[in-house]
Amino acid sequence: MTLRVALGERSYDIAIEAGALDRAGDLLAPYAARGRFIVVTDRNIVPNQLHRLEISLTTAGIASAVEVLPAGETTKSWKMLEKLTDALLAYGVERNDTIVALGGGVIGDLVGFAASILKRGCRFVQVPTTLLSQVDSSVGGKTAINSRAGKNLIGAFYQPAFVLIDPTTLDTLPPRELRAGYAEVVKYGLIDDPAFFAWCEANGAKLLAGDPAARIHAITTSVAAKARIVGEDERETSGRRALLNLGHTFGHALEAETGFSDRLLHGEAVAAGMALAFRFSAMLGLCPAEAAVRVTTHITAAGLPATLQAAGIDATGKALVTHMMHDKKMEGGKLPFLLARGIGQTFLEKKVDLGAVEAFLDAERG
Ligand SMILES: NC(=O)c1ccc[n+]([C@@H]2O[C@H](COP(=O)([O-])OP(=O)(O)OC[C@H]3O[C@@H](n4cnc5c(N)ncnc54)[C@H](O)[C@@H]3O)[C@@H](O)[C@H]2O)c1
Ligand SMILES: [Zn+2]
Fold first, then answer.
1. Tens digit of each residue's pLDDT (9 = 90 or more) over 160-199
2. Can you tell me which atom of ligand 1 is nearest the CA of 131?
3. Which of 133, 143, 222, 233 to mutate to test the pocket of ligand 1 (most atoms within 8 A of CB)?
4. What are phi and psi of 206, to 5 degrees?
5. Residues 6+ away with beta carbon under 8 Å from 47
6. Do residues 19 and 170 make contact, with C-beta atoms less than 8 angstroms apart?
7. Is the CB of residue 321 less than 8 Å from the CB of residue 354?
8. What is the per-residue pLDDT across 225-271, written as a single tens digit (0 to 9) for each?
9. Atom 33 (ligand 1): residue with closest C-alpha?
10. Rounded to an integer, what distance in angstroms lies between the CA atom of residue 272 and that of residue 3?
11. What Rg do the C-alpha atoms of the chain give, in angstroms?
12. Cα(219) to centroid of ligand 1, in Å?
């Protein structure tokens, strides 16, 4: 199945298919006419998935080189950006070449940013290998590295030329990473698709167990939603794309509290953040309590944290709100919040009283 992100001359296709990685040589052939391929990946992907791409490219007669970086969030750094751009320049990368980001969101974000600045813009293709990157980060053109001041603060909007999604790459993904990515799948249901949330309630366990049909359905539904939202609001100016940040303001505070470490993965923080956003909406009387209970129940059933305690957070409301105030979305002392009127009825509220957030979080601490 092929989906498309409609952005005028920056439009691109997203191929979603079990086994697509083994057909990469065919699917990417249009980009090989004049240039070479440089595959950038991380050390965990080398033993698990890299050979599939290499065999496919070689069989199709496409010359390629490989650059392997360390795995993990710390790879999204100035140091690794320098190492990568130096390596690509040493290789003699030209504008007709294609840089292939084979990996999760870390590789995708770093490689996309490197491609955006290298020779003022080189072509790049996303081949996401984690559930999070397949349903979220590989589509939409947000690229970034982290800096001392915080996560994703140095970056650019730079769209890939093509996205190749092969759900079978998830076979080698650690289960905890798979669950974390699932939080972003559930997010699309909660934003504006109640029928998809109901599908998640019925089929989430199957998906997490590796059921191929459930995997394809979840990925295509999520990517279609993301492609549509990005097509409507590429640079997050109209508020439409901001809906994708559901659970992320609370989640960001939890990630900051745990030092953006393995103690709490991004998707785990988003899972807890979405449950908190629904319970906060219920507390404010915006949303029925039953909706918040459904969200909390499903997130817990998926093996994800839905409470501060389950996320291993013991901080005060004040400490968590302080983290939120460093969020890059702060505007004139106010933080826009995504709240809900029900399942699939998320909206952006710009006037949330941070005192109320603090009191809510203290009550959640119990
Ligand atoms: N650009 C965006 O729009 C956007 C959106 C959401 C998140 N992000 C970013 O994405 C990053 C997180 O991405 P992620 O969750 O994919 O993490 P990740 O890239 O660190 O991958 C998670 C782990 O799984 C390993 N791995 C990846 N694929 C594998 C496979 N198929 N088999 C075995 N191991 C595999 C990786 O080496 C890593 O250890 C964060 O930096 C976040 O800021 C970006
Ligand atoms: Zn996210």
1. 999 999 999 999 999 999 999 999 999 999 999 999 999 9
2. 16
3. 133
4. -60, -45
5. none
6. no
7. yes
8. 999 999 999 998 888 899 999 999 999 999 999 998 899 999 999 99
9. 173
10. 30
11. 20
12. 15
